[in-house]
Amino acid sequence: MQIITLGNELLRQKAKKIEKIDGDITALSQEMFEILERDKGIGLAGPQIGIMKRIFVVHVKDDDLRVFINPSILETSHDTVKFEEGCLSIPGIYTNVIRSESIKIQAWNIKGRSFTLEASGLLARVILHEYDHLEGKLFLDYLPENKRVKLMEKYEKSCKKENK
């Protein structure tokens, strides 16, 4: 499996609920962790690999490998933080994004058990970023239009250089 990049229409579509958590979903999550490690990321959502299912995986340094199936954001803090983000689906583009400092999320794990997690800092940011992928949203969508346009132009130029 390969990571799809900006311009692929799947990145703008909403992922569908997973109806059955079984061996196929376990295998998918394992493959997603392998892709995450191979591409040196800290989060990866199903839509980024063309799998339009509500699943994402997270591995923030010094934290456990985490799988989120059919997640729901229950709460976000009013306190926000500006921090640089990038995305495996938009390689080479990094910019500051304002997000909630902490969150509360409910999801299912690969054993089909529901869990609730309160997270803050980088873990909360990564969860929100990956959750956005399930909703067809990208981190660029949080930027003012003029900044978003400049970054898109930069990305397009870098893609043209790679294709030469």
In terms of DSSP E residues, the strand content is 25-35%
Numbering strands along the chain, what is their spatial order in the largest sheet? Answer: 1-2-3-6-7
CATH hierarchy: architecture: Alpha-Beta Complex
CATH superfamily: Peptide deformylase
Decide which structural class fits the backbone. Answer: alpha+beta
Round the mean pLDDT to the nearest integer and report it. 95
CATH class: Alpha Beta
Poorly predicted parts? none
What fold name goes in the CATH topology slot?
Answer: Peptide Deformylase
Instruction: Note the total helix count.
Output: 3
Question: Strand-and-helix sequence, N→C?
Answer: HEEEEEEEHH
Q: Helix share of residues?
A: 25-40%
The major beta sheet can be summarized as:
5 strands, antiparallel
- Rough outline: globular
Number of strands: 7
